[in-house]
């Protein structure tokens, strides 16, 4: 496929609501805005289609894997929007059915500019935590099934893209596996809580980019949601030297655009070849 040496990439920040239809309408507007600004790749945040009042709400909108026949409105929307806008879309996560009736996969799907699905990654690391010095606690494994431990990297006109989701940012071994598989861009669609985001969001995103000499695209949820949860926003694009080159500044819906210089990334990797200096597998 033809290469883009300086692609424009959009990190789509959302304040997703408790119903699917208005979230898809909002995502469509934001994706169109990204395309109008010249973006050729757009990344939606985790749970972009639904941030429900209850964790079990996702079970009621979970879709079978594969678009068509009107049974998969979220997947159909993604395929149709990608084709209409001529835009590659990394679709945050959506709930896809699993063999267990009371749990679903958190699936990150990728569509090319013709609307063809070209990759799927199911979130590996589930957010089962209690936050220090807080009454906040989360147990994603109650409603999500963890994905197979298999890093996903795909070819695109913008370079090799590695897929991660949110809590994965805390597991550098996954990012190392992606870079070892040739990733030049790694996406991290997220719904970081305000508490953990304020403490760790920037340092984690920059560290993963620095360690692997990759561009990191990290769209986040932002603001207050139907469940009462507050997410951090500050959607980021970080370059391969760890510099934040674009960042959202609101707790609202926002499109963050950055131009990626792939030639510069190649120069950095050539002059600072830490990836080839590894001594531990």
Description of the molecule:
The chain is an alpha/beta fold. It has a single domain (8-277), classed as Nitrilase/N-carbamoyl-D-aminoacid amidohydrolase (4-Layer Sandwich). The protein is 26% helix and 25% strand. It contains six helices and 18 strands. It has helices spanning 20-36, 57-61, 73-85, 172-180, 194-212, 262-271; strands at residues 8-13, 41-44, 88-91, 94-97, 104-111, 117-122, 128-130, 137-139, 144-145, 153-154, 161-163, 185-187, 215-218, 222-224, 230-232, 236-238, 244-247, 254-259. The protein is globular and about 50 Å long. The model has no long low-confidence stretch (mean pLDDT 95).
**β-strand number:** 18
Order of helices and strands: EHEHHEEEEEEEEEHEHEEEEEEH
Low-confidence stretches: none
Q: Quote the average pLDDT.
A: 95
Percent helix: 25-40%
Number of contiguous helices = 6
- Give the CA-CA distance, first to last residue: 32 Å
Give the second-level CATH assignment, the architecture: 4-Layer Sandwich
Largest sheet: 8 strands, mixed
CATH superfamily grouping = Carbon-nitrogen hydrolase
Radius of gyration from the CA trace?
17 Å
| Tally of individual domains | 1
Gross geometry: globular
Classified by CATH, the class is Alpha Beta
Broad structural category: alpha/beta
DSSP strand content: 25-35%
As an assembly, this protein is single chain
């Amino acid at each position: 496929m033809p290469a883009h040496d300086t692609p424009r990439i959009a990190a789509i920040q959302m304040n997703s609501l408790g119903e699917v239809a208005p979230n898809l309408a909002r995502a469509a507007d934001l994706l169109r805005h990204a395309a109008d600004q010249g973006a050729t790749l757009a990344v939606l945040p985790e749970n972009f289609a639904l941030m429900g009042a209850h964790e079990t709400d996702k079970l009621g909108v979970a879709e079978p894997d594969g678009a068509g026949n009107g049974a998969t409105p979220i997947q159909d929307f993604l395929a149709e929007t990608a084709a209409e806008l001529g835009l590659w879309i990394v679709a945050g996560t959506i709930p896809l059915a699993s063999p267990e009736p009371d749990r679903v996969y958190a699936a990150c799907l990728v569509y090319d500019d013709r609307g063809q699905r070209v990759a799927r990654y199911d979130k590996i690391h589930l957010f089962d935590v209690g936050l220090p010095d807080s009454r906040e606690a989360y147990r994603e494994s109650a409603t999500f099934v963890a994905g197979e431990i298999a890093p996903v990297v795909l070819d695109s006109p913008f370079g090799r893209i590695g897929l991660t989701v949110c809590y994965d940012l805390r597991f550098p071994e996954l990012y190392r596996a992606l870079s070892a598989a040739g990733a030049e861009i790694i996406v991290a669609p997220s719904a970081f809580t305000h508490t953990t985001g304020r403490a760790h969001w920037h340092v984690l995103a920059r560290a993963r980019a620095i360690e692997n000499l990759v561009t990191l695209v990290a769209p986040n949820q932002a603001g207050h949601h139907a469940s009462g949860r507050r997410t951090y926003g500050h959607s980021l694009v970080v370059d391969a030297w760890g510099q934040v080159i674009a960042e959202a500044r609101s707790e609202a819906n926002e499109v963050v655009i950055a131009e990626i210089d792939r030639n510069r990334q190649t120069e950095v990797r050539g002059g600072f070849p830490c990836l080839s200096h590894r001594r531990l597998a």
